[in-house]
Design a protein that fits this description.
57% helix, alpha+beta
């Protein structure tokens, strides 16, 4: 095994272990995820920027004013620091960049997708002792402070602009056409947040057929999470075939067919047919 392969295997072991921890560390999971994209602009001793990013989150937390107590005070303090003084925010062009989903790069550029900017807010606020949580609204991730029933929400993508209940309602309606439901504003768990980030990366890669490498590592990290959709195994097999790894892809299709055979035998047979077609591509 090469040094690069050994490094990747070790990072993925750390990722899997952290995902199964009693209290998964959201920042560490996001940084290990970001390392999959390759070395960051960082010293040789920290090539993937993981330590440097943790230090930066600690530094930002230390800049928050001492003594903030209420949920609205915390939201205002974070908006002033991160959105105002530090310039963390997003724009439509950020959706076109893979960097916008990588925590190391978001901390460096101070630009990113709503969910990654929210991770910055969550991790800085948490380090400062704020009662903070993520809110996975359909189509737009935001942050909340204090008791979730109070709905003190802020939008890091907009620099930390306060988000009223009516604002959140309009955001959900525009994204889904359906009204806001209470279940949409409950605190998002770390692993749910990480899976949503990986889904975003997979969506980015699916629009760029030349980036099957990104699609593959995003799928493989998703499969390391303790709870993931079973269909991801089939998607990985299809991706392997797309990348020309016909035997591996066919073998994984057949394994997945065994899993679904007892539930949907017709679907299982169709998958086996695709596996045979993949093997035939070697002829």
């Amino acid at each position: 095994m090469s040094a690069q392969d050994s490094g990747t295997a070790e990072r993925r072991r750390r990722f899997a272990d952290e995902a199964r921890a009693e209290r998964p560390d959201l920042a560490l999971l996001c940084l290990l995820l970001g390392a999959e994209a390759g070395p960051a602009p960082a010293p040789a001793a920290d090539p993937y920027g993981i330590d440097a990013a943790q230090i930066e989150l600690d530094r930002l937390a230390g800049l928050l004013p001492y003594g903030a107590r209420g949920a609205r005070e915390w939201a205002s303090a974070l908006a002033e620091l991160l959105g105002g003084r530090c310039g963390f925010a997003g724009s439509s062009t950020d959706y076109q960049r893979l960097d916008s989903s990588l925590l190391q790069q978001v901390l460096r550029r101070r630009r990113g997708l709503p969910i990654l900017l929210s991770v910055v807010w969550i991790e800085v606020a948490r380090r400062a002792g704020a009662p903070v949580y993520g809110v996975a609204l359909p189509g737009h991730f935001v942050v909340g402070f204090g008791d979730p029933a109070e709905r003190v929400l802020a939008d890091p993508f907009a620099g930390g602009a306060p988000l009223s209940g009516e604002d959140a309602e309009l955001m959900v309606v525009s994204a889904t056409g359906a009204p806001l439901e209470r279940s949409m504003t409950v605190p998002a768990r770390p692993l749910e947040t990480v899976l949503r980030i990986l889904n975003n990366i997979r969506a980015w890669a699916s629009a760029r057929p030349e980036r099957t490498d990104v699609a593959l590592w995003a799928l493989e990290l998703s499969l390391l999470l303790p709870s993931h959709p079973a269909r991801l195994r089939y998607e990985r097999a299809q991706l392997l075939v797309q990348r020309g790894e016909f035997l591996r892809g066919a073998a994984e299709m057949e394994e997945y067919a065994e899993v679904v055979d007892g539930i949907e035998p017709t679907a299982a047979e169709a998958i086996r047919h695709r596996a045979r077609a993949a093997r035939a591509l070697l002829n």
